[in-house]
Amino acid sequence: MRVRAAQAATNLRGPQAEGLGALDAEAPPTRPAQASPLRERLTRLGAPPRPRPQRSYELPRGFDEVMTPYGTAAVRQEVLALPRLDPDPGTIAYLDTETTGLTGGAGTYVFAAAIATPQECGLRVAQFFLPEPGMESAFLLALHDELVAATGVATFNGGSFDLPVLRTRWVMARMPGEFTHSAHVDLLTLVRALYRHRLETCTLRYVEQRVLGYERDDPLPSALVPDAYFDYLRAGARDFLEAALEHNRLDVMSLVHLHSRLLRRLQGGDIDMDADDWLALGRHRW
Questions:
Q1: Are 117 and 93 in contact (CB under 8 A)?
Q2: What DSSP character marks residue 89?
Q3: For residue 83, what is the enclosing H or E element?
Q4: Is-contact 186 126, C-beta < 8 A?
Q5: In angstroms, how far apart are the furthest CA atoms of the chain?
């Protein structure tokens, strides 16, 4: 039967054969298989960050929108009166960040950062804020540009936390190159080397009390800072967020005075030094 059917098809002539040819010509071509969504996403991984739709938000007081190649960044700048520092640390950028957690890793965001730079006219404080995670690229670029302009960077435990988190966020945001900065000094390392024998703990609050001689009226405990940001993202609440930003601002201002005090001790110019202090200094230097 199959042979007869094949012969019948071969023997077709005239209009019947023309009809079969017309059907073959009009048959739609086979559609190529579409690329999988996963492949499209993998292809986009190497591309620069795309602009994302922004929701309506209200910035904290004093912040302005600054344009960057990746969109707008929220920045607040001010110049504060600064007593003469002896010794003068120079044009060092003092950095402090506020994050959504203390564990680090890819899921931890930096939502606020303050950079204080001593200048002839006073202390210039630039504060950066992340209104929503989709604006992270602009936030990181503005922060990076402020940081690389200084001759050095000083932090408090920044070598173990602040700078590694910023480098991680830079990669996660698919920013070009690396998160670079000038030479870095971690003031916590110096505090431990020079004051370990005098201090029960080396937290910044305790160091302020025992080394700098003042007790801060902190508007918000450190443990509640991430919750203040989450409340802002969920409901736009700004009261606790303002307190968290003030906490960040006070932190970075303390670093300026702490660095000057540590430099004085490193030079042996601290009149309060006793035998144990000189021994700690000798161990650190030699």
A1: yes
A2: -
A3: none
A4: no
A5: 117
Q: How far apart are the first and last CA of the chain?
A: 102
Which residue ranges form the domains of the chain, and what is each CATH number?
64-285 (3.30.420.10)
Reduced to 3 states (helix: H, G, I; strand: E, B; else coil), residue 151 is coil
Task: Render pLDDT for 45-76 as a digit per residue (tens, 0 to 9).
Answer: 665 555 554 555 789 999 999 999 999 999 99
The list of the chain residues with pLDDT below 50 reads: 1-35, 38-39, 42, 53
CB 45 within 8 A of CB 174: yes
Range 179-183, long-range pairs (CB < 8 A, 24+ positions): 179/140, 179/144, 180/144, 180/148, 181/144, 181/147, 181/148, 181/153, 182/93, 182/147, 182/148, 182/150, 182/151, 182/152, 182/153, 183/151, 183/152, 183/153
In this predicted structure, what is the pLDDT of residue 37? 61
Q: Does the model's pTM come out above 0.90?
A: no
The total of other beta-carbon atoms located within 10 Å of residue 244's CB is 26
Residue 184, SS3? strand
Euclidean distance between CA atoms 66 and 85, whole angstroms: 32
Measuring CA to CA, how many Å separate 180 from each of 149, 150, 212? 11, 12, 31
The CA distances from residue 17 to 9, 12, 14, 20, 22, in Å, are 8, 6, 6, 5, 9
Predicted local distance difference test score (pLDDT) of residue 41: 59
Half-sphere exposure of 70 (CA within 13 A, CB side): 20
Report the C-alpha gap between 152 and 119 in whole angstroms.
14
